[in-house]
Amino acid sequence: MPNKLCRVWSGRCIALLLAMSAAPLVRADAVDRYVLSRGGVTLEVSAPASGIVRVRMGRGRLPEDASWAVPASVRRAGQPLQLRRSGARVELVSGSLTARVDTATLRVEVLDGNGQALFSDLSGRAALAGTRGFELRARLRGDDHVFGLGDKTGGLDRKGGSFVMWNSDAYKFTQATDPLYKSVPFFMAVSDAGKAWGLFLDNPWRTRMDFGRAERDTLSLGGEGGALDYYVVGGPTPKDVLRQYAQLTGAPPLMPLWSLGFQQSKWSYRTDAEVRAIAARLRSEQLPADVIYMDIDYQDRARPFTVNGAAFPDLPKLARDLREQGLRLVLITDPHIANAPGQGYAPYDTGMARDVFLRRPDGALYAGDVWPGSAVFPDFSREPVRRWWGDLYTGLTNAGVAGFWNDMNEPAIFNVPSKTMPLDVVHRIDSDDFAPRRASHAELHNVYGQLNSRATFEGLLRLQPDQRPFVLTRASYAGGQRYAATWTGDNVSSWQHLKMGVQQLLNLGLSGFAYAGNDVGGYAGETPSPELLTRWFQIGAFMPLFRSHAETHRADQEPWVGPAAHVAIRRHFIAERYRLLPYLYATAEENSRTGIPLLRPVFLNFPEVLAKGDRLGATEDQFMVGGDLLVAPSPTPESPGDYTVELPGPGWFDYWTGQRLDGAKVSITPRLESLPVFVRPGAIVTRQPLVQSTAFVPTGRLELHVYPGADCRGELYADDGVSLGYRRGEFLRQTVRCEQTAEGVRIRFEPREGSGTPWWSGLTLLVHGWSGGVPKAWAGMDSLPASLDADRGAVQVLLPDMRGGAVEIRR
Ligand code: MIG
């Protein structure tokens, strides 16, 4: 046997090193991938990017190289591996990572640059000992915390837990419910020292991940079918892991700015008049808002892509009139198409004509009961079907509907114990670089929602090529963040859910899904008390998606419901979100480039907090928005006693007063009207004048709040908020830095990127941390007036729009 086979594939030469190679290699060789067969099992190690190792294993031969999560362009962009051989071991080096393969057992160990094992597989080829699927055990370090896995409940740290990936409609889920709506088989392990690595198991079948629950210090990954195909990423920081995961599965596209505004939803606003009344009330109450949702009851007999003409006689006019008030419509469009032959129902008729619906193994159409009664289901695993689906949006986008909501796409089916379709329903995959083939629903179940939202997203892009699509999906799979935002489904109006929702969104952010929200106020159960609703609005105002929603047949829970004092508090927090939009939007833009989420656990920005013993527990209820704002709600919101907030270090600021705090511990006596928020020393936070909708461009000045400290910086980012112009350079991005000088503070404006023009006429600079003494002198600019804002402990200076240069404030 030759020890190297060279064959041309994708225009490149791939070196295959075979097991029986005779001559041991004496020096490191560069190979594109490494393949070895032992005992009927074939292993492949490759590196799609430096610092990322991919491992595939198959019975006999390797599994099909295709994926719903990792695009072909990424999988095929192999980085060379340096191959070293010593005895029974082969080492493959990719960047700072080394994959060590035991050639007898096919065990794989992945080591970091210091030779420390991150991932140590204990199974090797025995992982495939069963007749199908796999069972892989690996070592889990005792001090590793585990995060990710999407919207699952349980604590922030997944350690000690066991989880199943199986997309499920989980009405009124609890702390103990698993599985939930989404399957994201990706986790990050972070040691007490803040060192992180990650693993993505790319297998859409029903899988299981156990983090030391079944067996101490042991990670086990099990799958019922499909390929053993996983990626190990090496960090070494938690943020690096997220960047690497985004290299594989993509970062969310920059969403339209309006989707960061407040969104009001309800199952269901049933008539044109009711929607108009909601809009009018939002405006008359001065409650800033951007979106009103229409749930299933706008449709004719719950049939997707129809409108009940009696209740909504002129949808285009409704959409236009709302637009004038700065409000956009988002409409639900479920995947279940009414099984309504011969009734002139176009989605059914055109779908049948093109044979888009799923069938049983015997060829009969599969039908299941959902909202329209008997319904049929598009096979989204076929590209032509996704195109057909996308075209169904023509009428609604022409009517002026701005965004779409893909619900029930686990898919959820009524009146069957499994709550979904039979597993032997046949998909006929025709997509990406998959070989066209028949596949069971058992294989496609967990990607059904992802492919449904992909079809919607891609369809909207075809229909409105220069508009950023907004799609909200309930179910998804890894990589689905490229197509849609999500929410955590049917939560309950309870204090426990208010708390749990934070953890769910943090872990969604750590799993690629940066745009996510919980139904504010809670969806199911008893209607929230005024206190619960108010607290939910306060916390919701800092969540990536801020959407109020509730089940049908419940009392109203719009922000104006309840005592006036409560409404005033909710108004204040919604308004604060709108003031903070420049900061939130800059964070969203960063996310679109890096995959780093908007909502972050404290350790993501400050990995060192993990080392402080029980600090993870202490920080579980806290969260950060971007790199600079730390929000610290009560850990026991239902019975508010005093509590202590531990900040990552000293010198932080109170966001609301602007005052610098003394130590790193703050004692809080909860008051209904306040939610403690703190600012990192070194932050530069942008704020804008209050607008009632992102459709109304603010006038006046952009506020730059400077909080002096180490690594002092902030980002200005602006674009038109809705088009893809930013991809053509039509944006404005500018880094602002500050440094403490002998005499005061210098603020430096770096040169601008992009061709965009700002809405602001100038800047209001607020430098916090000044307790007294009006600043004496200015350098860099001539005679600008400075004033002391004693209440906020800040010096305030009005600046022109700064395209570059620096100003200095001297004491
Ligand atoms: O069977 O469309 O999670 O947000 O209001 C319930 C009606 C179907 C479930 C969604 C919920 C939505 C509801 N839907």
Structural class: alpha+beta
Q: Tally the helices: what do you get? A: 15
Rg over CA atoms: 27 Å
Globally, the shape reads: globular
Which kinds of small molecule does this entry bind, naming each only once? Answer: ligand MIG
Query: Roughly what is the average pLDDT, rounded to an integer?
Result: 93
Q: Identify low-pLDDT runs.
A: 1-26
Q: Which percent range fits the helix content?
A: 10-25%
Total number of beta strands: 51
Can you tell me about this structure?
This protein is α+β, with helices and mostly antiparallel strands and 811 residues long. Helix content is 18%, strand content 29%. It has 15 helices and 51 strands. The protein has a ten-stranded antiparallel sheet with strand order 3-7-8-9-10-11-12-19-18-14, with no helix packed on it. Strands 33-32-30-27-23-22-21-34 form an eight-stranded parallel sheet. A seven-stranded antiparallel sheet has the order 4-5-6-20-17-16-13. A hairpin with a 5-residue loop joins strand 9 (97-102) and strand 10 (108-111). It starts with a strand and ends with a strand. The model is unreliable at 1-26 (pLDDT under 50). It binds ligand MIG.
Q: What would you say about this model in short?
A:
The chain has 811 residues and is an alpha+beta fold. The protein has a ten-stranded antiparallel sheet with strand order 3-7-8-9-10-11-12-19-18-14, with no helix packed on it. It has an eight-stranded parallel sheet with strand order 33-32-30-27-23-22-21-34.
Q: Which SSEs are present, and which pair or pack?
A:
Blueprint lengths: L4 E5 L2 E5 L12 E3 L1 E6 L2 E9 L2 E8 L12 H4 L5 E6 L2 E6 L2 E6 L5 E4 L5 E5 L12 E6 L5 E4 L13 E4 L16 E2 L2 E5 L5 E6 L5 E5 L6 E6 L4 E6 L4 H12 L12 E3 L7 H13 L6 E4 L20 H10 L3 E5 L4 E2 L7 H8 L14 E3 L2 E4 L6 H9 L2 H5 L4 E4 L19 E4 L7 E4 H4 L3 H16 L7 E3 L2 E2 L7 E3 L7 H15 L6 E2 L12 H11 L5 E3 L15 H16 L1 H14 L4 E2 L1 H4 L9 H5 L3 E3 L3 E3 L11 E4 L6 E2 L10 E4 L8 E3 L3 E5 L13 E7 L5 E6 L13 E9 L3 E6 L12 E7 L8 E3 L6 E4 L4 E7 L4 E6 L1
Parallel strand pairs: 15-31, 21-22, 21-34, 22-23, 23-27, 27-30, 30-32, 32-33, 43-47
Antiparallel strand pairs: 1-2, 3-7, 4-5, 5-6, 6-20, 7-8, 8-9, 9-10, 10-11, 11-12, 12-19, 13-16, 14-18, 16-17, 17-20, 18-19, 24-26, 25-26, 28-29, 35-36, 36-37, 37-41, 38-40, 39-41, 42-43, 44-45, 45-46, 46-51, 47-50, 48-51, 49-50
Helix pairs in contact: 6-9, 11-12
This protein binds ligand MIG.
